[in-house]
Amino acid sequence: MSELKQTLIDKVIDPLERPELYKKYDLGVENGILLYGPPGTGKTYITKALAGEIDCSYMELKSSEITSSLVGKSSDNVREIFETAKKNQPCIVFFDEIDGIASKRSGGAQKTQSERQMINQLLTEISEINEKKELDITIIGATNLKDEIDEAFTRPGRFNEKIKVPPPDAEARIAILRIHLRSRPVIKDKINWEEIKDFTEGYSASDLELIAKESARRALSESKKQNKLQKITQKHIKEAIDENPPSLAKKRSR
């Protein structure tokens, strides 16, 4: 995760924070980034955290929000997305599960006219943003199926940077869990985070979000029984972990 963080700092955060330095070298923000890795590794979480880090506009889209059976409608949707991004710079445009609109078609299946128009419009928009360094727009696509992405999207001038997102390491797991607990009542000095690191090995970002929710439910249940606010403790978190196995690895015996 530390390598991933440094890549995003070098390619996105630092160029936005020190644009004059990068202009001297005719460089700017990396406009096209493809995040890939197994489900639940935190690709969406990373993108949202990046937007928060650089205090920029953020647009999150799924293929179902773009595609339409009406000829021309999908390409219009794509055009409108990028018009909005240009009006709200700096901006991150995040396409979650981009393989839904940018995948290869195997078995001889043909794309519909509407799909072809949408793809061509999306490729045009991505190329324009990569060519115009004055545009502070970063396009990030996330996929669990990197090999299924059409080569037209991965060639130079489009998604130039391809970053593998590994499962969260120990430090990242704690950071993710803290984020999901921060708006909830927690006895912070009663949490042994070093122990939690060991307990959560193999847990994905989405697993950890569930652990936070289940910990809160346990504390809430006690609050109802005792008619008094009970804050989340190590016990609640440990119970939630015991009841919810990791999705990325076998649960270790403890």
UniProtKB/TrEMBL annotation:
Do the record's keywords include Coiled coil? yes
Q: List residues traversing the bilayer.
A: none
Q: Per UniProt, what is one GO molecular function of this protein?
A: ATP binding
Matching entries from SMART domains are given as:
AAA
Q: Tell me which positions the record assigns to the signal sequence.
A: none
Domain AAA+ ATPase, first and last residues per copy: 29-169
Region (Disordered) location? 222-254
SUPFAM superfamilies in alphabetical order: P-loop containing nucleoside triphosphate hydrolases (SSF52540)
Keywords from the named record: ATP-binding, Coiled coil, Nucleotide-binding
Pfam families assigned: AAA, AAA_lid_3
Gene3D superfamilies the UniProt entry points to? 1.10.8.60, P-loop containing nucleotide triphosphate hydrolases
Tell me its family.
Belongs to the AAA ATPase family.
Q: What PANTHER family does this protein's entry cite?
A: AAA-FAMILY ATPASE (PTHR23077), NUCLEAR VALOSIN-CONTAINING PROTEIN-LIKE (PTHR23077:SF171)
Descriptive protein name = ATPase of the AAA+ class CDC48 family
Q: Which organism is it from?
A: Methanohalarchaeum thermophilum
